[in-house]
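User: Hello! I'm new to structural biology and keep hearing that structure can be predicted from sequence alone. Could you demonstrate with RNA-directed DNA polymerase? Please show me the input and the output so I can see what each looks like.

Assistant: Of course. The first part below is the input, the amino acid sequence of RNA-directed DNA polymerase. The second part is the output, the predicted structure written as tokens.
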Amino acid sequence: CPEMSGDPVANEIKKEIPTLIRTKHMNKEEKEKITKVLQEYPQIIKRENDRLSSTDLLKHKIRTTDENPVYTRNYRYPEIYRKDVQIEIDKLLENKIIQHSNSPYNSPIWVVPKKPDASGKKKIRMVIDYRKLNSKTVEDKFPLPNIEDLFGKIGRATYFSAIDLASGFHQIEMDPESVPKTAFSTENGHYEFLRMPFGLKNAPPTFQRAMNSLFSRIPNVLVYMDDIIIFSDNLDEHIKHLKTVFERLKQHNLKIQLDKTEFCNRELLFLGHIISDRGIQPNPAKLEAIAKFPLPKTEKQIKQFLGLTGYYRKMIKNYAKIARPLTLALRKNRTLVIDDDYKKAFETLKSLLQNSPILQLPDFEKPFILTTDASNYAVGAVLSQNIDGKDLPISFASRTLNRQEENYSTIEKELLAIVWACKHFRPYIYGRKFTIQTDHKPLQWLHNLKEPNSKLIRWKLQLADFDFDVKYVQGKTNVVADALSRNPPEEQHLNALETSSPNPEEILTEFLSAPSPENSDDILEDLARALNITTEDDNENTTAEDDNENINAEDDNESLQTQHSQESSNSQIKIIDDKTPCINVEKFQIVLTRGNPETKIPIDRPFNKTRYNWYTRYPYSNDIDEYCLEYLQPNHTYGVLCSPPIENSIDEQIYDQIFVHLSNIIKDKFPTVKLKRYYTKRLDITDSSEQEETIQNYHVGKTAHRGIHEVYRTLTKRYYWPKMLEQITKVINNCSLCKEVKYERRPIRQVYEITPTPSRPFERLQGDILHYNGKQIFTLIDCFSKKLYGYPIKTSSAHEIVTSLEHYLSLFPCPKTIQFDNGTEFKNGLVENFLKYNNIDTHFTTPNHSDSNGLINRAHSTLIEILNIIKHGKDYTLNKILRLGLIAYNNAIVSNLKMTPNDITFGIQTTTYAQDLVLEQKVKEYHDDRELVARAIKEIIEKEKETRTNRLNQTRENIAIPEGEVYIRDKQYGKAKPKFKRGNYSRETKLATVQKKSFKVHPNLLKRPRK
């Protein structure tokens, strides 16, 4: 035991140290050395009843958006905890962690029961709810350490210690100005914190800042919040490192909790992982929780499971690929389907974690190996090092591909995996020489140098920061051997290739591993020549046009296993120029030449495809038919014929004959294949994202949002890819600006529907307001008898409408239904309550669609004519004109019913005196058979409706309103304003929503949906 000092407290602590530290895992030497070094620093040890000191490193300040006090009423908590709360308060007061307060601030407390201790005594944790204060607190942007970076620093350490600070937050003082903001209350008083409390928004960044300033320059120390890890290669070094840490704690008056501190461990639990000299493993407790996790059946449960397993994703190879069925279930508008793939992914992740490999801690003195791979849906990588003759993993990484990346070719996905993996593991490999291992040869992807936005340039610049070698490891399929076995070349051809062609693999390695992109162009030219492909500078001698190879993954896999070598030497291949006509149908290309003997040459194409070029000087040879039938694929839908510039009429006739001949072959044998003829050389765009970017560039930038065919005609002069018109149509039809601003040249004219027909008078009415000569008339029309009623009103107010309805109901029976438009004079509480009181149903038409109220609108036009005739040359008042007009209207015969509205309504014909005696008998007969007449009238009305509807619908169409985004005609637009406004339509509610307002919408007011 070291010599005792004059401080009795320190001497007492020194004596207690052997009983306070955990030594069961230590041998004698380790125990003696740890005890000795701790006894040298009794000042840093806090016992249970010692007062907690504070550090001078910094003070915590609460910066709020304003100085208005935050006050929240106290929560009620169980009576049984009140004594425990007061004990906790007294303890905090005694340690001068809190003090009594007069602050206007207040945050409520809550009590959380803790697990019983070893003696079985129950304890509580007093929690202060600072959420309202935190919402006004300005965020401290100080970053927490990256967990991967922390693990990367440990290396091959064999000794670990974990120091626990005693109530770490409470060892940091509050800034005096911020003390009142921490106030809280119990039933016995109002208090505020002098030390930094738990629960404050910026408390973790403040604590991390303090720890970083304390230990940032000390080697072999990791700090993550209150977890302080010391690691060393041997015991003596470990003791030295501990002394350095203890000295720094002593200088800044910080205390540690010995009973929670681990010394001289050979393995250590840190941030959910077990760290040892063997590497990193998951925490067994976490693995147990994962093993017991039930099959997730809700979105929340899926997120919980993926969050739990995702924390250990670096320990699972191809995690993203395996978890894809689970992640797909989280996509928008996806219904959760628990199928076999879903269950398999869930069980596989659980199983792999239970048997996860031990990851090695990186040794930065040794080179790294980065192995990459790609599938149709994900990319993955393994960072490893050669240790004792074995490649042992340091970390696995993977991610799923987005929808755009899923359309990449196989080679693009493999190269994407390389670029992404280098970026992901940059902290390990940057500035160090390392090796990239891939089972795929990304050679021909580099052909597309002609593209201004080529991924080649972007990815090349990203890889230029790294120093690496590319090593190709053999995969399950030997592609080259397979190709040679299918088409064995003659010996002389192989020799010609060996002597005349540079090695593409060597060129690619040089390109990828070049320290800077300065010589990129030279390397690419060499590579282009090696691969027999075209770059921008190859103007004199070029191959036939590139064709787009954008096909699905199944074609990719098939092509991988069927790459053909050249059947003849380069000396037999004719140099093709722009004057050479060629047929280009996806994978198969026929090149017509003048003079060379016939030969068929399979040429390796970009993206693992093979193009078969067949050279012939006999355009009418039967062999053309044979090879067309052999190689043309009926599922390919586009073909291209490149013809030369016309030199004379004879050439023109020859090439026309060639075109007709080959067109007939294709049309006869493959009717689904479209053969097109072009006279200019065009540029292939193979990447779907660049295709869309090109369309957008011309549509938005160069043609000012012109239409589909204008953009198509412009692009076809320079570019080619399959289904170009279809893609242009899709892009332009989805342009939101075009939908809002452009006129609807072919507006929707929805078919008319036959409305319900009433079976008697006074059953169904339509109501509206007629504006006549500066005055207003409230009108009603009977949908059965066509009888019209009118009431002059002073204003179009709800009160005037109710008064008019009262007048009507005082003379006639209550109708079942009244139909109005959406005017506020009808759609209000006063009118609705009046009609509801009289048991009258209300129906409102679709906004801005007058056809829905067509009956009364037609009656208005007739009534206006009658009123104008009556008024002509007279000085009558509106009331008199209206009375005379209604008499004339209601006594005029309705053409299709052959009766007047009054006849139908009352069963009495309006006649002159001379006619009374003649018609008396007919009126009596009408009364006797009134029901029969009503049925006859209804049949006439229904037949008339059907006839009229069928006639009008001959020029109309039935269009279903699309679910989701729609564009609605804006009635307020001017010439310089958008014609349509964007909204959303729900089939379930049949309502459109614009700016959070929902309303009915008629299809005729929508912009025609385009596909």
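User: So the tokens describe the shape?

Assistant: Right, they're a compact way of writing down the 3D structure. Reading them back into a model, for example: The chain has six domains: 59-276, 280-358, 540-686, 691-734, 764-952, 964-1005.
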